[in-house]
TrEMBL record, chains A, B:
Organism: Brevibacillus fortis
Gene Ontology MF term list: DNA-binding transcription factor activity; transcription cis-regulatory region binding
Ranges of residues in domain HTH tetR-type: 1-60
Coiled coil: none
UniProt superkingdom: Bacteria
The entry's DNA-binding region: 23-42
Protein name: TetR/AcrR family transcriptional regulator
This protein's UniProt keywords: DNA-binding
A Pfam family annotated for this UniProt entry: TetR_N
KW DNA-binding (keyword) present: yes
DNA sequence: GTCTATAAGCCGATAGAC
DNA sequence: GTCTATCGGCTTATAGAC
């Protein structure tokens, strides 16, 4: 389907070269159509960017809300959030890079809308940390700074993850969960918690929906 | 001095709009010269980017080596590295954003050279973590993943720091040091270490040299 | 060392045939 | 739904006067 080919071409190029460095003609060439054909499926180049970012953020947000609906303990929620975020950013690496890098290319209303989605997602993390702090499970001085630190550390996965790397995605996401639990000093009975103490459900079910309808791992 | 005005103008615009979205004419306008004048001080637009990135990374790397020369204990080195990285990325926010965001705009030899500087810096972090692990002070499963997590979390400061924000830079850098020490589970006598246990020298001395000769905080 | 003028080409987007 | 042809403007970079 032509529309799908165009959006996938835009995704690959935006992730590799950046939105501004990618021309309409580049996208047309990559999608194997002429540049005029693009304008049958969109109004401006920015529309492509907006579609990619909305899809990515909305899927992530939806999955995050499902996690919260299923798990109650803050330490479980945190570990599941880290796994969701890390796995999403690895599997949907290209989309994640675009979402992470190209916000400044947005103009007008969409800029506000995307910012709202992002801060809604941040607020969920904020609530988890506050919950764990109030329950005496976490020990952190400043939840806002901790949220920023955790999000940034997990988002970074999109920048270096490769399916051919030395660590499997499962290893990485478990390891990052452990680091997050350590960062917030999650404890039961004075004992530092790790992800293996938490008896989490299979993580896979939280992010089966791939962003932008990609069938498998996105390629860089 | 014209040269300084041009480089500062490029720095501001690259940080705000991105390298590709910034035109030669934009820089000339911001520096209050004509676009031809720029070419008296550089050969191509990329030269400006390279100069900014080299200056930033070399200064950071030099300061990091000074820290290692003065401190021996891995827990002290780690805390000082976090303070150096966080403070540098807050004070030299614009340079840090450019270094962090515009690597993909580089071509040819400079791309390799900048990548080398970056991985040299990463290696210093790697050695600190390995040292702490071997000394039994840190408890981490995978030092490479921990380095990536720590670096990403500290680098993120450049994206949200503001001198008008709710937390002072000193609060932020101390807080981040504590989070880093918690992440690696730094312990003495079974007791979790915080930065106040470490008796560090005044951090200010490690990053008095501002990047690109900026006199004070860089403005966004 | 800074300017005016301009080259040569790519940019996003559109008109209109089929 | 996809194409060819093209518009007006902006791009990096240069030539050459002062």
């Amino acid at each position: 389907m032509t529309k799908e080919k165009i959006f996938q071409a835009a995704l690959r190029l935006f992730a590799r070269k950046g939105f501004e460095a990618t021309s309409i003609r580049d996208i047309a060439l990559e999608a194997e159509v002429t540049s005029s054909t693009l304008y049958h499926y969109m109004k401006t180049k920015e529309d492509l960017l907006v579609a990619i970012m909305q899809e990515g953020l909305q899927t992530l947000l939806g999955n995050a809300k499902e996690v919260l609906a299923e798990l109650e303990a803050p330490e479980q929620q945190l570990a599941a959030f880290v796994q969701l975020h890390v796995t999403s950013h690895a599997i949907n690496k290209l989309t994640a890079l675009v979402v992470d890098t190209e916000f400044r290319a947005l103009t007008g209303n969409t800029r506000v809308e995307i910012a709202r989605l992002r801060s809604e997602y941040e607020l969920l993390w904020q609530r988890i940390l506050t919950g764990g702090l109030e329950g005496g499970v976490f020990a952190i001085e400043n939840t806002k700074l901790a949220v920023l630190a955790l999000l940034q550390m997990c988002t970074g996965v999109a920048h270096w993850y490769s399916p051919d790397g030395p660590n499997s995605l499962e290893e990485i996401s478990l390891n990052f969960s452990d680091m997050a639990l350590a960062l917030v000093q999650a404890k039961r009975n004075g004992q530092q918690l790790t992800v293996s103490d938490l008896d989490l459900p299979e993580p896979a079910r939280f992010f089966t929906k791939p962003w932008l309808g990609a069938a498998a791992h996105e390629h860089s």
